[in-house]
Amino acid sequence: MSTTATNVDPQELAKFSELAHRWWDPESEFRPLHQINPLRLDWIDQLASIKGKRVVDVGCGGGILAESMARKGADVLGIDLADKPLKVAQLHAMEGGVANLAYRSVAAEALAAEQPAQFDVVTCMEMLEHVPDPSSIVRACTQMVKPGGWVFFSTINRNPKSFLFAIVGAEYILKLLPKGTHEFARFIQPAELARWCREAGLSTQQMKGMEYNPITQRYWLSGDTSVNYLVACRKPA
Length: 237
Fold this sequence. Notes:
Rossmann fold
């Protein structure tokens, strides 16, 4: 098991920190996050009913999902190790008067050791493919959630189609994301993520694919997990 200090890639932090000031611009590099956020939020809320729940968003970045969950009535803590996006998130929440939302610069493993079984819901979206040891994050998320609570992940499958769509298509042809956002070797197959969840003590409840039509610029959830996909798990009560 890796130590908390090592499960972070400084280059990944630098990459997202450089773009921090653009996080809340819906026409910036983060446009896809703004577009998929309502889909993710509704899916999470349908399953876990987040109003009044204590939620931690792991790898929250500039706070797009964290703030939207707080606006739905959840008591949210967003955590990340990239300081610039965190400051942007804090400022945006302050300007928007979102009170039931806090941010901290802390590793998932460190928070799990400090606050085990303290959260009703744990979300970790678009983050596992950016860390050296994703299984350690899965274990930390499991540790943080209360028995009977929900854990949500989203990441990218690893296969020729995902290379074509998520890297060649999204970064080079459609320019939806900055070049170099993703590294193919770090993509995670659903069977791998399901195994880590099982080994950590989570039971997988639902797996959904996320698809995109470049012509209509529309995203939707489907049964096709070949590129982007989301996983909902529960910790046994």
